[in-house]
Amino acid sequence: ASVGPTHNFAVLPEQERFLSYLPLSHVAGLMVDMCCPMALTAKLPCWCTAYFARPYDLKMGAIKDRLCAARPTAFLGVPLVWEKIADKLRAIGAANSGLKQSIASWAKDLGLTQAKSSLLGGDGYTPVGFTLAETLILSKVKGALGMDQLKYAATGAAPIRVDTLEYFGSLGLSINEVYGMSESCGGATLSTQSAHLWGSCGFPVDGVEVKVFKVDATDINKKTECPRTPSLDDNHEDYQGEICFRGRQIMMGYLAQPDFGPEHVKSIEKKTAEAIDAEGWMHSGDKGMMTASGMLKITGRFKELIIGDGGENIAPVPIEDHIKASCDGINEVMMVGDKRKYNVALITLKAVGANGEVPGTDDLDAGAKRVNPDVTTISAALDDKVWIEAVTKAVTSANNNGKICPNNAFKVQKFMILPTNFSEEQGSLTPTKKLKRPIVEKAFIKQVEQMYASKETYVRYQA
């Protein structure tokens, strides 16, 4: 209901198509791939078809083939999927030269201008030449991706970098951020084509209350609503707090199994009491803020916050995202520094086969191959001056950005490039490809201690 009127989605007597590739045991896969097609077909003039990807498509990098076969009109991609697609497109673009590259750059520049003017508060200006660029170039790129019929593209389940949204915007694809959790039956906020800003998860869906509270550390019933920020760029701590939901879609509580005994039941009841307060607010554990217009922005997760040596609350994701955006060869960044004197970072590089499910090979892939064309493997990059300088420059860029690193406590002082990538297979990523930070830190605790013991900014990996 929220999406249809602004996307011409599900409101006409025609087929709408979904591609299912996420685990159906996860709320995103269940709601988008199963519940939405049934509900839309039952309630609206359209009829829906769900196409199911092969279980190994994500692992084998064959999602594009399924997209081309299904031509979905609605598609939810977790950030890793969108970023992998962008990496492949950038690699293809970098291989072009001369006139072909100039034409592609011309089309993408017009696409980005049009996308920015379509953001909430923009003037809606369509630049001269955009229609021609869309017809000759951008539509063909979308067709090659299987996304030429897409009416609503969304991302959720994990944070996505703004530069990824900008890249797809330059191709004429508007990716809308959605936000929710299993306990809220999926989406609680969403962005639409007519009301979206890069970096925001949009407005609450009908029937859902969303507020941001300063919550007492010992009693969730003691809370004060945060004032609303005048803009997404104003990240003052006064505006930030815990994101909470309330509505009929909120769970009644976590389900206990009485056969496990009274102690088990009590522990589950305690967990429920720690999640839902006396007024019915579901506490998400996510840190964020709301703008004066009611748009939600997530700034971190309380469990992920790094407590600096001086008591600072450091949200690692914005810093990590800046580092990744500053060097196209970097795949993942994980900061470590909780209750330590300063922060360090574990960094992985883009590699062939590293798709989130498996760690991939030692061979560099996508943007990583362009950092230094003479270096083709991760193991060689560990000792390469060009690579070390490129990553150092990306870390320095983040450290010098006053919005994400307001003082020295937020800065990354040392880093290490790992010889492998994080993956679900190794237990370091969730099924929706979110980083399991405690598990990663434990797995590489020896390397973390090596960084703190070293005097160098770049600390070479040692097993």
TrEMBL record:
Domain of life: Eukaryota
Keyword Ligase: yes
Organism classification: Eukaryota, Sar, Alveolata, Dinophyceae, Suessiales
Organism: Symbiodinium necroappetens
Protein name: ACSBG2 protein
GO molecular function, one term: long-chain fatty acid-CoA ligase activity
Domain AMP-dependent synthetase/ligase span(s) in chain numbering: 12-255
SUPFAM superfamilies: Acetyl-CoA synthetase-like (SSF56801)
Keywords: Fatty acid metabolism, Ligase, Lipid metabolism
Cited InterPro entries: AMP-dep_synth/lig_dom, ANL_N_sf
GO cellular component: endoplasmic reticulum; membrane
Gene: ACSBG2
